[in-house]
Amino acid sequence: MQVARRTLIAASLSALALSAIVLPAHAEDKWPSKPITYVVPFPAGGTTDILARLIGQKLGPALGTTVIIDNRPGAGGNIGSELVARAAPDGYTIMGGTISSHSINASLYKLSYDPLKSFAPITLIGTNANVLVVNPGSPFKSVKELVAAAKAKPGSLSFASAGNGTSQHLSAELFKTMTGIDMVHIPYKGSAPAIQDVIGGQVPLMFDTTVVAGPFIQSGKVRPLAVTSAKRVASLPDVPTMAEAGVPGYEVVSWQAMFAPAGTPSAIVQRLQTEVAAILKQPDIQERLAKLGVDPSGMAPQQLAEFQAAEIAKWAKVVKAANVKVD
Question: CA 133, CA 223: separation in Å to the nearest integer?
């Protein structure tokens, strides 16, 4: 009798263990069965937001669901990133991670999450240059004129940025270091409000992404002086590189990627990567990205993990060399 009871208990435990293994896979088969939240850790109107909406409107139908954009700005992308790091790893929360939120911030802030370990890399959406812009009424027609004025009156010029630790901020800090000038940093909560104050004349200049600044350059609301990439940008062919403008060796390229909370099933991560990579190859999306100055990628999760680790190491050196501090 006892043997039979032990056999029954063992069989029940085996069945329970088997169900624990089978159920998650069964749940994955049904994914997605509800809307997916795409967290943007910056305000509406910035590069991450624009790309999230562009991809989200295609990704939803491809997956047979709805993708909801959720803007959670603050602390250079840290607030939204922390939210995603703590979210359930069930495939229903993804985010737009950037050069700042997922690499630079590791050297600037005491983070409550690990940019590498707290997330499951999905794919690199693409890369883009930043561009130095000034108010159209500004006396500066070139980088050399701006540098000369800054050297004549140290600390007299201020620059806006999308926030502490963003690539826009670091672009300016590197510019200061390489030209030997002093400018006052005015951080904003995102690109959109920052560039509006440059347009309005409240702040004389800023580095911003080609995605955000491009339309304002085309409409004449800001004047471009130089792009931060090693080569000229196809969408801004007449704008010189920083090296061409008189700062040899200067180069900053921003990037945008997609992440999920760590522990998200690999099958879901792979499905998301496959769908986003396919979206990035669609002619209408490629045309739009080209106009925005974004070079699309779509790389695999493991490639993104390796790329991100290299970026964290790279920007740690830049932050230290430029002695960048969070204001």
Answer: 5
- Bridge partner residues of 93 (DSSP): 37
Domains annotated on the chain, with CATH = 28-127+256-322 (3.40.190.150), 129-227 (3.40.190.10)
End-to-end CA distance of the chain: 74
Within 10 angstroms of residue 137's Cβ, the number of other Cβ atoms is 8
| Distance from C-alpha of 244 to C-alpha of 247, rounded to nearest angstrom | 7
Q: How confident is the model at residue 166 (pLDDT cuts 50, 70, 90)?
A: confident
Q: What is the pTM of this model?
A: 0.80
CA 226 to CA 162: how far, in whole Å? 18
Strands of 182-279, DSSP E: 184-187, 205-209, 223-227, 253-261
Residues making up the chain, counted from first to last: 327
> pLDDT tens for residues 190-244?
889 999 999 999 999 999 999 899 999 999 999 999 999 999 998 999 999 999 9
> What pLDDT digit, counting tens, does each position of 114-123 carry?
999 999 999 9
Output phi, psi for 108, to 5 deg.
-110, -30
**Are the beta carbons of 199 and 221 closer than 8 angstroms?**
yes
Specify whether the CB–CB gap between 167 and 98 falls below 8 A.
Answer: yes
Instruction: Considering only the C-alpha atoms of the chain, give the largest distance between any 2 of them, rounded to a whole number of Å.
Output: 97
Distance separating alpha carbons of residues 77 and 40, to the nearest angstrom: 8
Summarize pLDDT for 31-61 with one digit per residue, the tens. Answer: 999 999 999 999 898 899 999 999 999 999 9
Which phi and psi (to 5°) does residue 265 adopt? -50, 135
Mean pLDDT computed over 78-107: 96
Helices then strands (H, E): number in the chain? 10, 10
